Amino acid sequence: MEQSRVRTARDEANSPSSKVAHFGADKPLKLGSGSTLSPFQVAYQTEGTLNADRSNAILICHALTGDQHAVNEHPVTGKPGWWEILVGPGKPVDTDRFFVICSNVIGGCMGSSGPATIDPATGKAYGLNFPVITIGDMVRAQAMLIDHLGIDQLFAVVGGSMGGMQVLEWAKSFSERVRLAIPIATGARHTAQNIAFHEVGRQAVMADPDWCGGSYIEQGRHPSKGLAVARMGAHITYLSEAALHRKFGRNLQDRNRVTFGFDADFQIESYLRYQGITFVDRFDANSYLYLTRAMDYFDLAAEHNGRLADAFKGSKTRFCLVSFTSDWLFPTEESRMIVHALNAAGAAVSFVEIETDRGHDSFLLDEPEFHAAVRGFINAAARQLEIGE
Amino acid sequence: MSVNTESRIDLRVIADLIRPGSRVLDVGSGDGELLDLLTREKNVDGRGLEISQRGVNESVARGLPVIQGDADSDLSYYPDKGFDYVVLSQTLQATRNPKEVLNELLRIGERAIVSFPNFGHWRVRLSLLFKGRMPVTKDLPYSWYDTPNIHFCTIRDFVALCDEVGATVESAAAVNDNGEKMGLSMPWWFWNFFGQQAIFLLRR
Q1: For chain A, where do the domains classified as CATH 3.40.50.1820 start and end?
Q2: Would you kindly state where each structural domain of chain B is located, as residue ranges?
Q3: Residue A369 CA to chain centroid, in angstroms?
Q4: What is the value of pTM for the model shown?
Q5: Nearest CA among B92, B93, B117, B115 for reference residue B102
Q6: Which of A57, A63, A285, B135 has its CA 20 to 30 A from that of B163?
Q7: CB A125 within 8 A of CB A116
Q8: Which residues on B lie below 8 Å from A375 (Cβ)?
Q9: Confidence (pLDDT) at A5
Q10: Yes or no: domain A9-190+300-385 corresponds to CATH 3.40.50.1820
């Protein structure tokens, strides 16, 4: 009988179909919480070719529910890569000219060490025994991966939302290893409103009896309902009122009138339910807790007495920030705050606010002005530095 | 925001005022023409502030660090004396609060360079005098109701404003109808009548 090609999220969490870098006891990951993670692994994908002097590498950082499958078919869902619109042959991040790396973050669930990974010490899934991680930890793990690949300096680090936080962290902690930083639709800290939304999502997961105090993998269960609700709530924050109205309005789902019940009468309900149901098949509930927590803890200025400019003092990295007018999760003001800090630090910074009604998710969509800005910024620097020609 | 890109003779005059290798902020940098010129010819460390998305994108594609923003609201975020020169070319007349903007230029830069179209030019005066209409000329191509240029001034008005904000005029130049720099020996009234654009180098 022919073996099914379908892989589950659980398969990918432990034995990913992508490349994996293993870091043994000699290379522990020092964590922001003070503890260490060892051994650990980083699952990653690469596209394109590293040039002879190893100067054309671009690191893509994924968002909360993204993964390393930015430019290839997803092993679980079979869908195209989540950033194929921006990254690929001839695209603004051109894989014909650049060596593109994208790794699953630490704490994720597509093959890098995370709560769904088997803990070698116990032979059981980590669950809540996995240490709480930070954006800084994700970036330190990525830096170790870059070392492992023999790359000293990245030509660019690019990412949106949580990926943008990683870009900022890279620019702060490893400034000399980053020539270009492209943080998109992001902020230098998570706002109270954003923490609030994340807390609602986490409570939805933890309120599901199948969560089992975090040990659902060992119990052979999965808190699908809670995780789906978390996803539904979060998904609303990625869109905008205008976009929802344009797409769905008050349209009814396969019916002519309301049913006076609690079925999905409206298209928007049906859409959100679908988003929730499909999400749970590819994502680990505990990972969702860990990664939302990492974002909540993110505050670049905090280590510098609240002065964000000091985080970027003396930086030689060139920055290009992008925000979207209808993004209310990471509104333009958050980007402007970073821009002002970079200005005060004397860093080379460009900033463009893209006019669109598609909300936070715009960074994943076809937004020609956004793509033109990224393409222009990368190409101009590549020309000046004679890289990837 | 700029008045007419074909007549940007002022950019050449501005470039001549700037010391090679200095730090320059161009406020209202448009498509990055001046910054590009200064980067190539004067090896400056240049930054731009531009209100239009298109202008920013064109500048970024030229490899210039330009921020999308508004001179009226965003200059306050720049540190004191962060630049050797802050340039405001053909933009002063489009700001909501020219006096405050001028103050900010003098705070951020060791020196400020300001160029603007002269509303005291004879063509403008004649248009008002004989036609009784707000002037629409090749350098000021907008009708009164759709112009982004909401705060016109004459060269004399500007000199008075400099006085008011305590700015010292280190040098000044005017450009006439033919795009020629006018002689320094000419008196103010002459500049104010025949100068189509004026370029001032200021400090405080």
Answers
A1: 9-190+300-385
A2: 5-203
A3: 22
A4: 0.92
A5: B92
A6: B135
A7: yes
A8: 61
A9: 52
A10: yes
Q: What is the pLDDT of residues A76-89, one digit of tens each?
A: 999 999 999 999 99
User: Quick one: CA dihedral B164, B15, B66, B22, positive or negative?
Assistant: negative
In chain A, list all ranges with CATH 1.10.1740.110. 195-292
Contact check, Cβ <8 Å, A373/B57? yes
CA distance B116 to A278: 59
Whether the complex's predicted ipTM surpasses the cut of 0.85: no
Instruction: Give the model's confidence band at A6: pLDDT under 50 very low, under 70 low, under 90 confident, else very high.
Output: low
Record: fold of B5-203: Rossmann fold (3.40.50)
Q: Has domain A195-292 been given CATH number 1.10.1740.110?
A: yes
Residues of chain A contacting B53 with CB distance shorter than 8 Å: 352-355, 369
CB burial string B40-78: b at 16+ within 10 A, e below: eebebbbbbbbbebebbbbbbbbbbbbbbbebbebbebb
pLDDT more than 90, % of chain A = 96
Query: Which pLDDT does position B6 carry in this prediction?
Result: 46
Nearest to A351 among B62, B64, B68 (CB): B68
Cα distances (angstroms) measured from residue A92 to each of A75, A340, A379, B60: 25, 26, 8, 13
Give the model's pLDDT for residue A58.
Answer: 98
Question: Within 10 A of A118 (CB to CB), how many other CB atoms are there?
Answer: 15
